Amino acid sequence: MYVVNCTEPINSSLYIEASRCTTKSNTSSSLPTSHFYFLDAKTRPSDFNQACTIEAEAPIMVENITGMSTPDIYKKLLEGVWVKWSRCQYQSCYKPDVLKEILSRLKFAFRNYMDSFVHFLFRGPHVYYDINDSIPRRTYILCLAITGGIIFLRSFPGIICLFALVTYKWRRRHLSMDDTIEEFLQSQNNLVPISGHYMAIKLLGKSKGNGQDFINEVASIGRIHHANVAKLIGFCVEGSKQALVYDFMSNGSLDKITFTEENKNTLGWKKMFDIVLGVAQGIHYLHQGCDMQILHFDIKPHNILLDENFNPKVSDFGLAKLYSVDDSIVSLTAARGTIGYIAPELVYKNLGGISYKADVYSFGMLLMEMVGRRKNVNAFANHTSQIYFPSWIYDRLDQGEDLELGDVSNNEKAMVKKMVITAFWCIQLLPSDRPSMSKVLKMLESDVELLKMPLKTFHQLPLETSMEVHSCENSNDESSISLDTGTITS
């Protein structure tokens, strides 16, 4: 029950006169300056007269005072109220609906907050709601809208700052590749361009790894001078565009000679053998001819270029890595190469550490394709036993059968057999069973009678892999790939 003080008489059934509380003024007028009334505590805010303010709130032992007389109200006030409390531990007083009670209290507090908010805005009567009272829906919406607007206005500068920070970070990340390449070029003062003859320009596509493929090529091939390694004449960088300038190779890449039907018979076995020797010498130079060993990781026919005299040049160093000559085992964060030429240890970590033997394996697979004049995995073979060429040709040699070379001389047969036996040693499953490139050169230059067949322990990688593959753009028909794996270390 409320006791309200009004500045004018109120004629309403909701208001019960509290005549004992009337105050006389000192003037000659007998009219009271204040009018006091009893008002039920459940009265809605909209029923409050603007001329009245709440003076006090008094407890009374009735649910509703509407219709009661002033003496009746005084009698109820004289009866007093019952007060009941208890003392107990939390565990003994706990009730299952304690969460409901807490939520109810929060709701009650929120209601009174909204009433205070409206009173502050519109200077209307200030009403404290009972816990079971309900308030108009529009009051909820008004308070939530105003509160939300204040919160938004206070947080808007922070949102703007956050957006600016994200934009800045994105731009820095986008430009980091250009910064990395620019920093590298400024540190390479000894790289002087050469001109005056035909050149081939290799344009790099969308570069990955902050321009690392460009850096790999320039840092590795830029320091190499060998007859069987492609020669870097110069390079050009403009923003995110990168170009490498090489000697022009008029006869294209080895795969055009090896795999296309119209060119298969262009070169005889003697010239093919010379190409094999040249490629082996180029790889041997990469491994042992420089102050740093260079592991190519992408030896395949597409990356062997032929000049006007069909001399081979090892090219495309986008996946290459430089290591100290003292490192017999190296570390990689991801496997790299082309499916069909990747050494097994780059995919299966339990076969041994990664070393220059990975390039030896790729060379062996290239050698097999040059002998067969087709890819090692031939989906259009007439017999299923010929699908994996190394396995098929091993069985023929092991059983003393002819290699079906056609009308060739004995010297050519000997050269082909040396190439095949050397390839079998190069593609052994375990890296420790493969020869070094210097040993490969000795095998190719020795008599075929001195070579013995290795055990059939080479491995056929699956035609399809469940590992995630990222293609690297290449000017050739096939793409080099990087397989996402765990860290591979010695």
UniProtKB/TrEMBL annotation:
A cellular component term, taken from the record's GO annotations? membrane
Annotated membrane topology: Single-pass type I membrane protein
Gene3D superfamilies to which the protein is assigned, alphabetical: Phosphorylase Kinase, domain 1, Transferase(Phosphotransferase) domain 1
Q: Which UniProt keywords apply?
A: ATP-binding, Glycoprotein, Kinase, Membrane, Nucleotide-binding, Serine/threonine-protein kinase, Signal, Transferase, Transmembrane, Transmembrane helix
Q: Give residue ranges for domain Protein kinase.
A: 170-451
Q: Name one Pfam family in it.
A: Pkinase
**Where would one find the signal peptide in this protein?**
none
What's an example of a GO molecular-function annotation for this chain? Answer: protein serine/threonine kinase activity
The protein's location, in the record's own words, is: Membrane
* InterPro entries linked to this entry: Kinase-like_dom_sf, LRK10/LRL21-25-like, Prot_kinase_dom, Ser/Thr_kinase_AS
Which positions, given as ranges, span the membrane? 139-168
- Can you say what this protein is called? Protein kinase domain-containing protein
Native species: Gossypium darwinii
